[in-house]
Structures are given as C-alpha cells and as structure tokens.
Amino acid sequence: MENRIKDILREAQSLIGACNDETSLTDARNRYLSKKAELMGLFGQMKDVAPDRRASLGQLINNARQEIDALINAKKAELDASKLAKRYQDEEIDITLPGSSEEPGVRNPFYIVKDEMVAIFTALGYQVVEGPEVESDHYNFELLNIPKDHPARDMQDTFYIDPVTLLRTHTSPVQARTMAQASGTPIRMICPGKVYRRDDDDMTHSHQFAQIEGLLIDKDINLGHLQATLDLFVRKLFGEKRSIRLRSSYFPFTEPSVEVDVSCMECGGKGCAMCKGTGWIEILGAGMVHPHVLEMSGYDPNVWSGFAFGVGIERVAMLRYGIDDIRRFYQNDIRFIKQFMKG
C-alpha cells in the first residue's frame, strides 16, 4: 500500500503540473481528492491492514492528500496570476489617448421650453392628453372641418401610409378624439407631440417638428377668455413685459380665427431686425372652435362653445434663446447643447 500511495502522489504531481486552465485543474482535484478517488478509497482498505500498521498508513494517506491539495492550490494561484497578467496586457492603457472626464448632462432647449409650457397650462387646470402619430384621415382632417378636396389640405400635404392613413400633420386630431370621448362634457386639455409635413428642411422649417395644442370647451366661453389665457401664457414664458395682439386669420376648424403676435423681446416693440421693424413677432394660431366641429363631435353649438390654440415648440425655443436654425435641435451637437447649461 505504501508503494501505491507514493505512485498516486507522483502521478498527481505530474498531472497537476501539466494543468493549464481551471477546467483541467478541477478535473485533477476530482480525480485525486473526491470521495470516489483512489487515494480516498485506501481509507476503506485499512480494515485489512494489521492493527499496528494502521496509524502509520493512515498518516501516510493524509500526508499525500494534504500535499496534493497544496499542489492544486498553488497551481490555481499560478493560473490566476497568469490570467491577471494577460488581462493587464490586453487592457494596457494607451497614455497617448486623451483623458476622459465626467461632465454633467445638459437638457436640450427643446425640452426646457416644452416642459415649461406644459407646466404653465397644467397649473391652469389643463390635462395633458396624448394620441397616435399615425393617424386616420377621419380624425386628422374630416372631424376638423377639412373634408376631402378641401383647399386647406394643400397647406398640410403630408406623408400618407395608405389613402386613409397618414402621419398626423398637427396635434389637433387628439382634440377631435378627446371631444368624441367626452360625450358633451366640459374639456380643458393640451396635447404636446410630434407632427409631420412635407416642408423643405431649411433654417426655419423641418419635415418633423412639435406642437402643443390646447382646447377648452364649456358654456359661455368667448374670445375674451382665449385672449386672457394666451396673454398669461406669453407673460409666463417670455416675461411680464411682453404683450400680445390678435390678428384676424383663417383656420378651417375655428371661427373666428386669429394669429397671435407677441411684442418683440429684442426691442420691446420699438422695431428692429428681429421683428422686421414691426415690433411684433407671430407666435401661434388660435380661435373659437367652429360650430360644425362642435356638432360633429356631439356638442350642441347653441349650448357649448370653446377655444383652441396651437404653438410650435421649436418656434418658441428659437425666439426665446435666439436660435438661428431649427435643425440645431436634432443634430446632437454637444457644443450647441452646452450653451444651455445652468451656471
């Protein structure tokens, strides 16, 4: 038995020394130190050994087991060190590369303005409502008093998916959906979101932009309520010194319709290059909800009235911050974004 113990130890030393990865080392551990290993099995043969030799043989087996265990631990330490050295070599730092630093994030001015606009109207009790960007002709045009072959569709020529499905040209379809679901009850809502039109991409136009439209429907609502609401909105957004004026205009879904101008924030209304010498800058469109639109959505125009307005988010941001090109909002130029870091 003594010779066999010595043979097992020599075999283990050779096998463990040849291990070059953790898998082969685990196999060696199982071969020599598991309960079913030959070395461990020698303990079961001790009953056949003369009593006066059992103690010395048992000690010999234990010494062999401990030596094999030490060999395996030493080999594992060697493999771990080799693995770490290779990792250091593979991940060696190139000191010629520029250093990296952590910089605080900066919000795009688009989202700064959008969130402020939403906060102004929610403080007035308006509910934020969202709707699909892929819209039906029924909601995008027909329920807004723009039937097929109406000339107003030319102003909003857009991206059609099929003859009755398109990318929405304004957020007004959300108003139509809300009115259809409200079943003749009061409404006070805004709907921010992206819209799509076949505009040429230039400094002031984009095929994709964003609007916030608002709708208020109740009894005894008049144009004065619209003017007061927009006057408060403009003062909150551009400063208390700003004022608005309403100019007659045309939109198929409102009657009367108005263009809303704000006094120039550059010259205070005196006239400058920014306002083209007029002292005013056009900012949004609005008007009283057309009686036909009310009627199509289940509201009796003899009982209910309301107003609607729509403002371009990028338009407001460009005016507020003096941004010269609408495309800057989408170009991911960190130099542009950094200008809006709060000091």
Tags for this entry?
three-stranded antiparallel beta sheet, 10 strands, 11 helices, alpha+beta, 2 domains, 40% helix, BirA Bifunctional Protein, domain 2, 20% strand, 343 residues, seven-stranded mixed beta sheet
Describe the SSE topology.
Elements (H helix, E strand, L loop, with lengths): L1 H17 L3 H12 L4 H4 L9 H40 L18 H15 L3 E2 L5 E3 H4 L19 E3 L2 E3 L4 H11 L4 E10 L11 E11 L4 H16 L5 E8 L2 E10 L16 E10 L1 H6 L8 E8 H9 L12 H4 L6
Parallel strand pairs: 1-5
Antiparallel strand pairs: 2-4, 3-4, 5-6, 6-10, 7-8, 8-9, 9-10
Helix pairs in contact: 1-2, 1-4, 2-4, 5-10
Topology pattern, helix = H, strand = E: HHHHHEEHEEHEEHEEEHEHH
Query: Which ranges are low-confidence, i.e. pLDDT below 50, for 5 or more consecutive residues?
Result: none
Beta-strand residue fraction:
15-25%
Helical amount among residues, as a percent range? 40-55%
Topology, number of strands: 10
**Biggest sheet record:** 7 strands, mixed
Shape verdict: elongated
**Rg, Å, rounded:** 39 Å
Number of H/I helices: 11
The CATH homology group name of the largest domain: Bira Bifunctional Protein, Domain 2
CATH class label of the largest domain:
Alpha Beta
Q: How many structurally independent domains? A: 2
Mean pLDDT score, rounded?
86
Question: Can you describe what's shown?
Answer:
- The chain is of the alpha+beta class and 343 residues long.
- The protein has two domains: 2-90; 109-340, Bira Bifunctional Protein, Domain 2 (BirA Bifunctional Protein, domain 2, 2-Layer Sandwich).
- It has helices spanning 2-18, 22-33, 38-41, 51-90, 109-123, 137-140, 172-182, 223-238, 291-296, 313-321, 334-337; strands at 127-128, 134-136, 160-162, 165-167, 187-196, 208-218, 244-251, 254-263, 280-289, 305-312.
- The strands form two sheets. The chain has a seven-stranded mixed sheet with strand order 1-5-6-10-9-8-7, with helices on both faces. Strands 2-4-3 form a three-stranded antiparallel sheet.
- The longest helix has 40 residues, at 51-90.
- The chain is elongated.
- The model has no long low-confidence stretch (mean pLDDT 86).
